[in-house]
Design brief:
The protein is mainly alpha-helical and about 160 residues long. It has a single domain, classed as Up-down Bundle (Ferritin). Helix content is about 75%, strand content about 0%. It contains five helices and no strands. The chain has helices at about 5-30, 35-65, 70-80, 90-120, 125-145. Helix 1 runs antiparallel to helix 4, helix 2 (about 35-65) packs antiparallel against helix 5 and helix 4 packs antiparallel against helix 5. It is globular, with a radius of gyration of 16 Å.
Length: about 160
């Protein structure tokens, strides 16, 4: 099996899923405020979902004879999701917006991967990406609604 463009987008996803997980984890640690209890525990589920997707994408990459990136240096060199230092002073809606932005990048990655894997005839990867894209779209809806936005608002 040779799917060079699929391998490339899968590594992009490994990088962006890793970075998205770190973004969520940072806000999970640093949040304060009246919605803390609700959102803190919700983000536990979000991080679990991201970790599962990251592992599954990396394993799929190995299955098609690729090599997933596996160092923070590689992640930082490839990710399209911005990095910033943690802060106790950030308002809750701003935190959620940053997580939402990371999810929108993942959505875009999955959409690109769906097209690429279909073009290269990698049906198994395509199915996996469609499933994860659907989950990401649902998270976008939920996160956007939490801060009073519709899913496509602000794009």
């Amino acid at each position: 099996m040779k799917y060079p463009k699929t391998e490339e987008i899968l590594n992009q996803l490994v990088a962006d899923l890793t970075q998205a997980h770190m973004v969520v984890h940072q806000h999970h640690w640093y949040m304060l405020g009246h919605r803390f209890i609700k959102i803190h525990f919700y983000l536990d589920h979000v991080m679990e979902e991201l970790a599962n997707q990251q592992d599954t994408v990396a394993e799929r990459l190995i299955e098609i004879n690729g090599s997933p990136i596996s160092t923070y240096e590689e992640v930082l060199g490839l990710t399209k999701i911005p990095d910033q230092a943690g802060s106790w002073d950030m308002p809750m809606d701003e935190r959620i917006q940053l997580i939402l932005n990371a999810y929108k990048q993942l959505r875009d990655d999955y959409e690109k991967g769906i097209k690429i894997s279909a073009d290269e005839g990698d049906d198994s990867t395509n199915d996996m990406l469609i499933e994860f894209h659907t989950a990401i779209e649902k998270r976008i809806w939920i996160l956007a609604a939490e801060i009073g936005q519709r899913p496509g608002e602000g794009e």
